[in-house]
């Protein structure tokens, strides 16, 4: 499955790099299936992913941020956000990714996961039970050490107030604007946690954003929790939205509750 | 001067890319001249800059983050941070820059400025009175519009509490960890402001971090303010530290006071 996911991600990357300097990439072109605004860049990325998938001999259902659910009667579903970090891309901040996961039933049923940094070409990959990798080298989460901590925290007017309390617990707080990549940096032991809690659930994360990064993080030794401190899961449903705490060191679970 | 600054920045970029995957880039190797910790990566970047400067026929004094002041009796001083965003570099977050400015007397006396994104190779450049450029194309700040706003805000345990109030005024808050690049994104009209206010002034910005980006932002139509709302300036002195508000639209000055 890795080669197939890489082929899809590479095709999307190529399409996005082709329009990165275009003035019309940020044109609003309607709404995605969940009602969030779609931009021309999102549509181009989604089309590139569809075309790449069609050219492969894979029978998969498709759950995408941008297109209606495609039911091919397959056992497994490709869960895809072709451009995670749309606002970064559109505005010109070089930090966004393609997120791809394959599995069944729910977020915790994902078996294969890839997140590609479109700017650098770095590839995070995991298979359930077989570990997580960055550019084919194994990656592991790190143990939390307050002195050298780095927290990735979603902020802004839609963040819950306690997000700011969490950001104040580290001397190195970052907010990078791409949940899938930020969770991969936790998996890589670069950061200790990613926290995204919204005051209005309509802005919270969807399964397409984090299906891949959740598997990558768990395979690297980390965990994802919901806002009651339980193990995080989501339905295979684009309308489901949730806040989360993703950690490298499970001792940080206490921050979720 | 542009070609010379480009030669220096390119040499630093090459040196940094050579050690980006090295396990020892983050080794602490002492303290910079201002007492802040220095890492192996900072030293390698600084040495590359020195060597590049020595190979050019430029007579400049040098004020660097990492080395003692070099007084060549020249009229102008090269003000350099060879690696702005050290923690990003060391930890593996692909967002850091080389910052170079040339001028005399103080931050406001800078005449030439270059900030190079080491990851992408993008080059921001300005000359006093001649405008600001990204990869040779003119750039301008944008007018503030609340609906599509993006604020870049320094956060974490060393940020002043009101930093969080500012981050809550936008639906798109980012904290990227490289002041020079973040100010260039304001100059480019990507973001509306960069705010860095420290609760302890020992963590605030030095002239080496922002001499270049301040000129680039001003040449793009923006402004930099201190925490009383006055026009920002700094001495040519590595021990001077200050908080700032950098804006594209001068109507945002009110946020400084």
What does the model show?
- The structure is a homodimer of 257-residue chains.
- The first copy, chain A, folds into 2 domains: 2-138, Fructose-1,6-Bisphosphatase, Chain A, domain 1; 146-256, D-Maltodextrin-Binding Protein, domain 2 (3-Layer(aba) Sandwich).
- The longest helix of chain A has 18 residues, at 2-19.
- In chain A, the strands form 3 sheets. Chain A has a 7-stranded mixed β-sheet with strand order 3-4-5-6-7-8-9, sandwiched between helices. A 5-stranded mixed β-sheet of chain A has the order 11-10-12-14-13. In chain A, strands 1-2 form a two-stranded antiparallel ribbon.
- The mean pLDDT of chain A is 93.
- Chain A contains 6 helices and 14 strands.
- Chain A is globular.
- Chain A has helices at residues 2-19, 40-54, 86-91, 162-167, 179-187, 207-219; strands spanning 28-31, 37-39, 61-64, 77-84, 97-103, 110-117, 123-127, 131-134, 137-138, 151-153, 173-174, 193-196, 223-225, 244-247.
- Chain A is of the alpha+beta class and 257 residues long.
- Chains A and B meet through strand 11 of A and strand 11 of B.
């Amino acid at each position: 499955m890795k080669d197939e996911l890489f082929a899809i991600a590479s095709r999307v990357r190529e399409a996005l790099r082709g329009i990165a300097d275009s003035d019309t990439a940020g044109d609003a072109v309607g709404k995605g299936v969940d009602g969030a605004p779609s931009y021309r860049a999102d549509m181009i990325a989604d089309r590139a992913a569809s075309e790449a998938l069609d050219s492969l001999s894979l029978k998969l259902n498709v759950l995408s941020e941008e297109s209606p659910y495609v039911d091919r009667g397959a056992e497994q579903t490709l869960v895809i956000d072709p451009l995670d970090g749309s606002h970064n891309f559109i505005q010109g901040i070089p930090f966004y990714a393609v997120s791809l996961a394959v599995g069944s039933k729910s977020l915790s049923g994902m078996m294969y996961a890839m997140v590609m940094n479109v700017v650098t070409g770095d590839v995070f990959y995991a298979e359930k039970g077989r570990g997580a990798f960055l550019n084919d080298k194994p990656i592991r989460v790190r143990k939390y050490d307050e002195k050298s901590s780095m927290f990735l925290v979603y902020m802004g007017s839609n963040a819950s107030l306690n997000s700011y309390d969490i950001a104040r617990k580290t001397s190195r707080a970052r907010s990078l604007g791409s949940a899938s990549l930020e969770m991969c940096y936790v998996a890589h032991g670069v950061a200790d946690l990613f926290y995204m809690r919204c005051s209005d659930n309509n802005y919270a994360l969807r399964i397409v954003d984090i299906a891949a990064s959740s598997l990558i993080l768990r395979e690297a030794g980390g965990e994802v929790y919901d806002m009651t401190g339980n193990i995080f899961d989501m339905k295979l449903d684009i309308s489901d939205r949730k806040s989360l705490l993703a950690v490298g060191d499970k001792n940080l679970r206490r921050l979720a509750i």
